[in-house]
Design a protein that fits this description.
29 strands; 23% strand; Rossmann fold; 21 helices; five-stranded parallel β-sheet; 3 domains; Luciferase, domain 3
């Protein structure tokens, strides 16, 4: 089996581009190595680098035939699939710029990004994306063609703006026969300082901003990450997180094209966890919500297990936690604890890792939001080397990373090579590296605010500890001042509470308030199973969330967390919300970050109720569904106190 750190042979210069590396890798591996796999109809279908190259070439030449020129924008939307990556690489090969949208983006979000980016071509998966394109085309004057690849439901679509990817590739083949050297000539014209991606930020407080990232930005970030954790040609990586998230681009493009590892695409987003287990990747990167769901799945299985299995799990986890804590504190692990840990691994942890698809994992990362210490300890207890990454879109994804054997779960680690991180006098985290973006598209004032004196201003508050680790509090605007003036990050409490299998989302409130409160979104599936086991009848999420027994269940989880907190930071009152927070309701970003200012305004009656003597808060509002339905909700929420 190949096991080579291929990226070490790559010298990143101002002339090198992602397509040039793609061309080099394709010619090196050709039909000797699998470039990617996709699961279709229950079968993993492999594709060689030769097939990858041919598909990209024909799509790129097809795009040129449609009038795409250098620096033109190509917008892409849809699930992770080989065609999506071919299209992105093809756009880069022509000298174009890729623009990604989240597949669940609503119409106005799609219109804003297509129009603001001046996209000339739009590429989507199938009927849903085509419908969005047809609805907005009149408001996006630069959009010339929509390319689709899934024929399901497309029989009666005859709008001249539409063209199938198969037809596009046929046109590309014809052009290749007429001008056989054109594709590689286009690639060789590219420069490292050319923009390759126009990446829109999640927009927690305002409209999304388009960050301009160059080939040099993306490649230097990937190589500096691999200087800390090398990846190999023989590695497998599962690409299942949205390509519109910079973390997925970081792994699939920046690192993948340099290391030459195999990309694997799930059959459907819903089967991703099952498909991860089938592949057993060596490298994995995901936001905290993915790992939180993994822990929740294990906890649910524990609750449903027999007495003997629960005892075995508790015994193994007790050993795993003790050994993990010794490693965290850099104390030696006595031989007898190593022996016990090995027994726990054979008896329980090995099966848990296999169930989660982590049986072959070597490098596991989380980023994009804060992760609570309980989740970190859990994964290290079962032998998964989970590490925190810190960065942002504007620095091509990453600037700070935990090192093996130097993991502190209250920090995000130390800067990667060629990256400098400082803290301003007012506590803001600023960075400098070759991966810092060149500015926001059509937003010079925002660029000037973010890039000052060669430093990227993150908008995050933090400090550097005595070990050189970066500690991130939160977004500067989100840091709370408690009643005694103490600064506190609400994310810390939120991530701690989400370790409970019964709690899916949390919104902690307390800035300049007399005490700390929170709004809870229960996990409908887990709490529903619990209710059925208790013979509690319910018909819907709103009804289940407001049941006295469910309030008591959540109250116990809050009491448990409060024990580890100073009295001033403990949650004293809470409400169970009648629904989950939803990006379609503008309560979350597409990367599932809470829009605090928005929810505070939307649920001001709840906030007022939490800081008054009322026992119930009346809500009269609407829920928007992705299919366009709007449901009216009128209900009373109970504001419950938390005992000491």
């Amino acid at each position: 089996m190949l096991h080579v750190a291929n990226w070490k042979d790559v010298e990143i210069t101002k002339d090198l581009t992602i397509p040039k590396l793609f061309l080099r890798a394709a010619k090196k591996y050709w039909d000797k190595k699998v470039a990617m796999r996709e699961k279709e109809f229950g079968i993993w279908v492999p594709m060689t680098w030769k097939q990858y190259y041919e598909n990209v070439k024909h799509i790129a030449l097809g795009m040129v035939s449609l009038g795409l020129q250098r620096e033109d924008k190509v917008a892409m939307i849809g699930d992770n699939r080989p065609e999506a990556l071919w299209a992105e690489m093809a756009a880069m090969c022509t000298g174009g710029v890729g623009v990604w949208l989240f597949q669940d983006s609503l119409m106005d979000e799609v219109q804003y990004i297509i129009d603001h980016s001046d996209a000339k071509l739009m590429i989507g998966e199938g009927q849903e994306e085509v419908d969005k394109c047809l609805a907005i085309k009149g408001k996006c004057p630069n959009l010339k063609k929509m390319i689709w690849d899934d024929p399901k439901g497309m029989r009666d679509y005859n709008d001249p703006i539409l063209i199938s990817i198969q037809r596009l590739m046929e046109i590309g083949k014809e052009m290749d026969e007429k001008e056989p050297g054109l594709f590689e000539d286009m690639i060789m014209k590219g420069k490292g300082e050319d923009v390759c991606l126009l990446f829109y930020t999640s927009g927690t407080t305002a409209l999304p901003k388009g960050a301009l990232l160059t080939h040099y930005n993306m490649l230097t970030m990937g190589q500096n990450l691999m200087r800390v954790d090398p990846y190999f040609e023989s590695d497998d990586f599962v690409s299942y997180l949205p390509f519109a998230w910079i973390g997925e681009q970081m792994m699939s493009i920046s690192c993948g094209i340099q290391a030459g590892f195999t990309l694997n695409f799930p059959e459907e987003p819903e089967t991703a966890q099952e498909n991860i287990r089938e592949i057993g990747p060596h490298v994995m990167f995901a936001p905290p919500r993915v790992y939180e769901q993994m822990v929740r799945n294990i906890q649910v299985k524990y609750l449903d297990s027999t007495w003997s299995k629960r005892r075995a799990y508790e015994w193994a986890m007790q050993i795993g936690y003790h050994v993990a804590d010794l490693n965290f504190s850099k104390r030696p692990v006595p031989w007898y604890w190593k022996a016990l840990d090995y027994l726990a691994y054979l008896g329980v942890h090995k099966k848990l890792k296999d169930h989660l698809g982590l049986s072959r994992i070597r490098d596991t990362y989380t980023g994009g939001a804060a992760m609570g210490p309980d989740h970190f300890r859990f994964f290290h207890a079962i032998g998964v080397n989970l590490k925190q990454i810190y960065g942002q879109t504007e620095i091509a994804g990453i600037s700070v990373l935990h090192r093996d054997g130097d993991i502190k779960f209250d920090t995000v680690g130390r800067p990667i090579p060629e990256t400098e991180v400082k803290i301003t006098p007012d506590g803001e985290i600023i960075s400098k590296s070759p991966s810092v973006f060149i500015g926001y598209y059509k937003m010079p004032e925002e660029t000037e605010k973010t890039l000052r004196d060669g430093w990227l201003h993150s908008g995050d508050t933090g400090f550097i500890d005595t070990d050189g680790h970066l500690v991130v509090f939160d977004r500067t605007k989100d840091v709370m001042a408690l009643s005694d003036g103490t600064k506190f990050a609400p994310q810390y409490l939120e991530t701690r509470l989400k370790f409970s299998p019964y709690i899916k989302e949390v919104w902690v409130i307390g800035d300049n308030r007399p005490y700390v409160t929170c709004v809870i979104c229960i996990d409908y599936g887990v709490v529903g199973n619990w209710a059925e086991a208790q013979n509690i009848a319910y018909t819907s999420y709103p009804q289940l969330s407001q049941m006295p027994e469910v309030y008591e269940l959540v109250q116990k989880e809050i009491v448990k967390m409060n024990r580890d907190l100073p009295p001033i930071a403990r949650i004293q009152k809470f409400v169970n919300l009648y629904k989950e927070f939803d990006a379609d309701d503008d309560e979350l970003t597409r990367t599932r970050k809470l829009r605090r200012a928005f929810v505070e305004e939307r649920y001001k009656d709840i906030v007022n109720g939490l800081y008054s003597d009322v026992k119930n808060v009346h809500m009269d509002t609407h829920i928007n569904y992705e299919d366009g339905r709007v449901v009216h909700i009128a209900t009373d929420l109970r504001a419950m106190e938390v005992p000491e």
